[in-house]
Amino acid sequence: MTEYALDDIESVRPDHAQRLALVGITTVSHLLEKGVSDIDRAELSRITGIDRETIVQCIEMGELLQINGIGTGYIKLLEAAGVDSVEKLKQYFPKDLHIYLVEINQQQQLVKVLPTLTAVESWVSQAKASQTLALAPEPEFISTQNYSEWSIEWAD
Asked: What's the distance, Cα to Cα, between the start and end of the chain in Å?
């Protein structure tokens, strides 16, 4: 899988990339590793001064780059089409998305070579098969306390 720098994601501002680099996050895969849980994202926000919503947006775009066949050119095209997360990509019918990407590219000339319908079908299929980090729920707290010996006494 190709390794991408944070600045390959157009929505990552240069000052944000610098702040993340100061804490050792210089690539998309580093960001995905360090932003696994909501607690991790809150900590990243706290130590970098980047708001949590922006951290989540960067993670979502990074997850899109992990889909085979979506590179930096196509990520810009998808973002222009409003597909800025794997979760949004999952919602599309491939044929409809392909038509929309062609229309967007005719207007904005973002890529020289458009993705084929087969490529878009593959992206949507991969998205549906993936588990995303940005919206992953926190792990449940599992107590080791044995509550079976407890009793409740009612007071009248």
From this structure: 67
> Model pTM?
0.76
In tens, the pLDDT along 91-123 reads 999 999 999 999 999 999 999 999 999 999 999
DSSP H helical ranges for 67-93: 72-80, 86-90
Instruction: Determine contact, residues 44/22, Cβ cutoff 8 Å.
Output: no
The rounded mean pLDDT for the chain is: 85
Alpha-carbon distance of 78 to 131, in angstroms, equals: 19
Residue 67 · residue 101 · CB < 8 Å: no
CB 2 within 8 A of CB 71: yes
